[in-house]
Automatic annotation (TrEMBL):
Domain FAD/NAD(P)-binding: 7-284
Name of the protein in its database record: NAD(P)/FAD-dependent oxidoreductase
Keyword terms, alphabetized: Flavoprotein, Oxidoreductase
Record lineage: Bacteria, Bacillati, Actinomycetota, Actinomycetes, Propionibacteriales
DNA-binding in keyword set: no
Transmembrane segments: none
Gene3D superfamilies tied to this protein: FAD/NAD(P)-binding domain (3.50.50.60)
Reaction(s) the record says it catalyses: [thioredoxin]-dithiol + NADP(+) = [thioredoxin]-disulfide + NADPH + H(+)
Database matches in SUPFAM superfamilies: FAD/NAD(P)-binding domain
Domain of life of the organism encoding this protein: Bacteria
Segment forming the signal sequence: none
């Protein structure tokens, strides 16, 4: 492997899942490149919580530390956007960058994450990751006992409100005009969660701080933070173009190590698991890396046997 653009493994995506995989593979003495566009999903978040030994660390600091560790073991970091992944032959892939550069690898790991489709309410996008939140296990403790809101229609939002009630006794569910069943209303009432059916007009922000939720009838309900259940959309364009099988929701069909239906292609983190927190994504990256290295070892052994038989003739 003398070409500097040839690798054992190319990891697409350089956040927790991708860097964790690259670290394991680099330590396994594989030639690894991580291609990253520098636009992580959790960029708006000031801190990440629930990561053992790293609780409260800014996500950018985790990424910086991970990049340093990968480089320490000889991993290569490539800044850029991948425009295409295609198969070169039975054992290699070509990874085309938007810059025009082409890399090749024996195996590819997609750690491309997902994107969040948020409610179309003024203020929501601007406050995302600050005081407009999604995961109570990531941010609930930081807003415990404050007046909280949950915004959105549907049974998933009802369940979200019931969970968030664990962190505060003052929770209001804004159904945004959605309908609730009688059992849902009974559950919410039993837990002391108020329900507001009037559609929401906007989030009220003053001095760069969320102050409340304004309704379309002009009323404002004071809230310190609001939770939503965004629609998760996998960043799967590269996967599907390569031919990886996906389910009805667009999520890649994978085995228990992240292996896809395309031989030699793996997925880790939010690209396949929308509920994976940072620590979960890192673990999935590690598991995929071990499976990839084992697969490469099997291939190396087969090639060594073939070479040995040729030499013996």
């Amino acid at each position: 492997m003398n070409d500097p653009n040839e690798y054992d493994v190319i990891v697409i995506g350089g956040s927790a899942a991708g860097l964790s995989a690259a670290l394991v593979l680099s330590r396994a003495r594989r030639r690894v490149a991580v291609v990253d566009s520098g636009e992580p999903r959790n960029a708006p978040a000031a801190h990440m919580q629930g990561f053992l030994s790293r609780d409260g660390m800014p996500p950018r600091d985790l990424v910086a530390a991970g990049r340093g560790e990968v480089e320490q073991y000889g991993g290569h970091l490539v800044g850029g956007l991948v425009s295409e992944v295609r198969r070169l032959d039975a054992s290699r892939f070509a990874v085309q960058l938007a810059s025009g550069e082409t890399l090749s690898a024996r195996r590819v790991l997609f750690a491309t994450g997902l994107r969040d489709e948020l409610p179309d309410v003024p203020g929501v996008r601007d406050r995302w990751g600050r005081d407009l939140l999604h995961c109570p296990y990531c941010h609930g403790y930081e807003v415990h006992d404050l007046p909280l809101g949950v915004l959105g229609p549907g049974p998933e939002t009802v369940q979200h409100a019931l969970i968030i009630r664990q962190w505060s006794p003052d929770v209001v569910l804004f159904t945004h005009g959605g309908d609730l069943t009688a059992p849902e209303r009974e559950q919410l009432e039993a837990r002391g969660i108020d329900v507001v059916d009037t559609p929401v007009a906007r989030l009220v922000v003053e001095d760069d701080t969320l102050r409340g939720v304004e309704l379309q009838d002009g009323r404002t309900i004071a809230r310190s933070a609001v939770f939503v259940r965004p629609r998760f959309i996998p960043n799967n364009d590269l996967l599907t173009a390569l031919g990886c099988e996906t389910d009805d929701g667009g999520w890649p069909v994978i085995d228990n190590t992240g292996g896809t239906s395309v031989r030699g292609a793996w997925v880790a983190g939010n690209a396949a698991n929308p509920r994976a927190q940072v620590i979960t994504a890192a673990g999935e990256g590690s598991a995929a890396a071990i499976a990839i290295n084992n697969d490469l070892v099997d291939e190396d052994v087969r090639q060594a046997v073939r070479n040995s038989r040729t030499t013996d003739r």
